[in-house]
UniProtKB/TrEMBL annotation:
Protein name: SDR family oxidoreductase
Pfam families the UniProt entry points to: adh_short_C2 (PF13561)
Top-level taxonomy: Bacteria, Pseudomonadati, Pseudomonadota, Alphaproteobacteria, Rhodobacterales
SUPFAM superfamilies: NAD(P)-binding Rossmann-fold domains
Family indicated by similarity: Belongs to the short-chain dehydrogenases/reductases (SDR) family.
Length: 262
């Protein structure tokens, strides 16, 4: 299937590794020019070099810090200066530390809300007028399965990503008539460094061997395995495509059947 994305411009947050990089690589394979972002300069340079070596789309990169007060303004200005326009915005942030809902600290909550929610909303607000003006755009926000089925011991993630779900649905209704779609992509157990970290925390908390924890996790997934970053990236690229133009305001799961809700 031709996704109709050749020569489009995409800004992908937190894309030096993991899920963000997976979506960036899938977009680049369709001929998209992607701007990678993150805090690790060496990782960004390496990711961009690998994408460029494949010879499909082109990758540029810039270091950013989502917690900085001027994050959205500086990044929006930078990408517009280098690309001229932004057709696709992939919102992606790191996850907060595990913890119980009854132990949430207000100051930590507000700091995480700035990085995971406010920064995403402000950046989108700065870029979406250009999409509306040209009559075409895609906003894809990577979140978590915890929106639909809260994940034990990830109370901050469940809370803050849920806020993004309400924002995304509202925004989608506002801009659909101007050719812009806004969707969320919910990963289940996709094998990344973040999942390895969470499995390690679970093993320590439960007093079990890491392999035992992973085996139990895989057994709970109908597909009986963790997903791959490549599988996740392919779904993300499709949601940003021309053929997906009638999908908006949706939360799409890439979870191997893990989420139990309807």
């Amino acid at each position: 299937m031709d996704l109709g994305l050749k020569d489009r411009r995409a800004l992908v947050l937190a894309s030096s590794r993991g899920l963000g990089r997976g979506v960036a690589e899938a977009l680049a394979a369709e001929g998209v020019r992607v701007m990678l972002t993150g805090r690790d300069e060496a990782a960004l340079a390496s990711a961009a070099a690998e994408i460029n070596a494949r010879g499909a789309g082109q990758a540029d990169w810039v270091t950013v810090d989502l917690t900085a007060p001027d994050f959205a303004a500086k990044l929006a200005s930078h990408v517009q200066e280098h690309f001229g326009r932004v057709d696709i915005l992939v919102n992606n942030t790191g996850g907060p530390k595990p913890g119980l809902a009854r132990d949430i600290n207000a100051s930590i909550l507000m700091a995480q809300a700035q990085a995971m929610v406010a920064s995403v909303i402000e950046l989108t607000g700065r870029l979406i007028p250009g999409m509306c003006a040209q009559g075409w755009g895609r906003v894809l926000t990577i979140a978590s399965s915890g929106i639909e089925q809260p994940i034990p011991n990830l109370s901050l993630s469940n809370t803050l990503r849920g806020a993004l779900a309400g924002w995304n649905k509202t925004l989608a209704t506002e801009v659909a008539g101007e050719g812009v779609t806004c969707n969320m992509l919910l990963p289940g157990r996709i094998h990344t460094a973040r999942v390895d970290q969470l499995d390690g925390v679970a093993a320590e908390t439960q007093g079990k061997a890491l392999d035992e924890v992973r085996a139990a996790s895989r057994a709970s997934i109908p597909a009986k395995r963790y997903g791959t970053v490549e599988e996740f990236g392919a779904v993300g690229a499709f949601l940003c495509s021309v053929p997906a133009g009638y999908i908006t305001g949706s939360m799409v799961r890439c979870d191997g059947g893990m989420i139990r809700s309807l």
